[in-house]
């Protein structure tokens, strides 16, 4: 009898875990540059920070997150190769908000049963997205929780660390009256508001394998569209000739459009975002039609086509929009910052404990 037979009898298969590591090893190693030490499988990931000696005052930035209930759709379709990109987008793209360059990331997968190919598919997706954002995947953990989770159930989470020079830190304190708010397009729903999505489809009697004529694919495929990654391009923008013009950035995730922008604006400022400057993608329109609701009613839940905001100096706005487009990030001017007193009924003011600015959306969406 092997030494782990008792554990196997309890529902934990350590050999399956070892096989999963072997299957993902190559993709994880591909994210490792010269700063990563020790390879795959150590108790701790090691990252050489010697280069930070070139910084005057290096600040480390960190973020942690998961993917939420979007995972339920991946599980229902038995399709797990895109959920890793969603995780990287939710974690790494929060770091660039403060102007930091991502350095490394770790992941955590809890599951009811380790299916090596499934775990490897998830982690390969994480590694692929890490490589795209210039982030080393230096470690992770897969935990089997039999009896607590179903055999096909899993959840993923991650944490990442980046670095920024103190005097290059972005934030509300840099924002000035007259700054332009640039909206950067999303790829779809990203990874927020899926509890509402699932409720709408269930109420309408729609399955994930059902075809949608409006979306041109099955519902499941449309909903699993991966989160767009921004950090690689934004780090490049910040390091380029237009970097000094960027005063703050915002990642549009949980809480929706207005609240996430308000978090990176100074107290006493306000912005009216013009809905007519963009047209939400069909997936947002069809979901609202199914629910009998309006696009406006879901602005606090879904990104409706805006994945990021950049608040920039007015005289550089056109150049920044052009640069973002050249980097593969379609963007447009959506509003202007004003600092001064006004009546703020209908505005979203700050969010998540931040005493920030005030934001509201005005007008009608472009058709």
Describe this entry's structure for a reader:
There is one protein chain. This protein has helices at 5-9, 14-29, 70-77, 83-95, 116-133, 194-203, 219-223, 231-239, 256-262, 282-291, 317-326, and strands at 36-37, 46-47, 58-66, 101-111, 136-144, 154-165, 180-185, 211-212, 217-218, 246-251, 269-274, 306-312, 331-336, 338-339, 348-351, 354-362. A hairpin with a 2-residue loop joins strand 15 and strand 16. The longest helix has 18 residues, at 116-133. Helix content is 30%, strand content 26%. The model has no long low-confidence stretch (mean pLDDT 91). With 367 residues, the chain is an alpha+beta fold.
């Amino acid at each position: 009898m092997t030494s782990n037979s008792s554990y196997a009898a309890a529902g934990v298969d350590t050999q399956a875990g070892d096989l999963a590591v072997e299957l993902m090893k190559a993709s994880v190693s591909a994210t490792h540059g010269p700063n990563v030490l020790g390879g795959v499988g150590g108790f701790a990931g090691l990252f050489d920070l010697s280069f930070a000696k070139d910084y005057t005052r290096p600040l480390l930035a960190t973020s942690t997150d998961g993917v939420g209930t979007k995972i339920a759709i991946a599980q229902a379709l038995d399709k797990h190769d895109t959920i890793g990109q969603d995780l990287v987008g939710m974690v790494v793209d929060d770091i660039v908000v403060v102007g930091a360059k991502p350095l490394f990331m770790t992941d955590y997968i809890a599951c009811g049963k380790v299916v090596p190919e499934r775990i490897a598919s998830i982690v390969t997706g994480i590694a692929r997205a890490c490589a795209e954002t210039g982030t080393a995947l230096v470690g992770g953990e897969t935990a089997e929780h039999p009896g607590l989770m179903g055999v096909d159930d899993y959840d993923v989470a991650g944490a990442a660390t980046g670095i920024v020079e103190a005097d290059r830190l972005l934030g509300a304190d840099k924002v000035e009256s007259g700054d332009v708010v640039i909206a950067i397009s999303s790829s779809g729903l990203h990874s927020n508001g899926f509890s509402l999505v699932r409720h709408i489809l269930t109420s309408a009697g729609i399955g994930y394998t059902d075809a949608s004529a409006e979306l041109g694919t099955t519902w499941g495929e449309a909903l699993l569209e991966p989160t767009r990654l921004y950090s690689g391009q934004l780090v490049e923008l910040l390091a380029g000739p237009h970097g000094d013009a960027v005063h703050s950035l915002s990642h549009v995730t949980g809480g929706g459009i207005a609240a996430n922008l308000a978090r990176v604006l100074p107290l006493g400022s306000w912005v009216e975002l013009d809905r007519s400057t963009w047209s939400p993608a069909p997936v947002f329109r069809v979901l609202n039609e199914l629910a009998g609701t309006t696009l406006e009613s879901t602005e606090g839940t879904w990104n409706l086509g805006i994945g990021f905001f950049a608040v920039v100096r007015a005289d550089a706005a056109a150049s920044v929009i052009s640069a973002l487009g050249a980097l593969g990030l379609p963007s447009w001017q959506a509003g202007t910052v004003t600092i001064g007193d006004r009546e703020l009924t209908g505005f979203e003011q700050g969010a998540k404990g931040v005493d920030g600015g005030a934001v509201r959306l005005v007008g009608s969406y472009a058709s």
